[in-house]
Specification:
140 residues; mainly alpha; Multidrug-efflux Transporter Regulator, Chain: A, Domain 2; two-stranded antiparallel ribbon; 2 strands; DNA binding; DNA-binding transcription factor activity; DNA-bd_dom_put_sf; MerR-type_HTH_dom
Length: 140
């Protein structure tokens, strides 16, 4: 079997869970909620069979969710993709709005890290001098 043939072999829900980091339960939820861009094929026995395209899409979904994209936005994005060409500008607006939210979160976290780094330095300096007593002491 060639690499191309192996890549085209349908995948079970367990294999997709392993490749995407999503649980089997989450994969069923994604399907139920219309978060996939195509129908999941089934065997004659009713078992789900996924394609490499499904896995690629789910990996994008994982990153969008991990970065805080609301399910409603992800569902809307999937709907746009399912509708095919002609709505790329709307897809771009949706993704750009999400990127801007992520950028704002990153900026806020960088500001938090800066304060934490400063406070770590204060404590390290005081401990190195043996003068840590009284730092944030409510009884002082």
């Amino acid at each position: 079997m060639t690499t191309t043939e192996a890549a085209e072999q349908p995948l079970s829900i367990g294999e997709v869970a392993e490749r995407t980091g999503l649980s089997v339960h989450a994969l069923r939820f994604y399907e139920r909620e219309g978060l996939l861009v195509g129908p999941v094929r089934r065997t004659s026995g009713g078992r789900r069979r996924y394609t490499s395209f499904d896995v690629d899409w789910l990996l994008i979904c994982v990153k969008l969710r991990e970065s805080g994209m609301p399910l409603a936005d992800l569902k809307h994005f999937a709907e746009l993709v399912r509708h095919g060409p002609g709505n790329e500008a709307e897809r771009l607006r949706l993704l750009d709005a999400h990127r801007q939210r992520v950028d704002a979160q990153i900026q806020a976290l960088e500001e938090c890290r800066s304060v934490i780094t400063w406070k770590v330095g204060v404590y390290a300096e005081h401990l190195a001098r043996g003068e840590a007593g009284g730092l944030w002491d409510p009884t002082a």
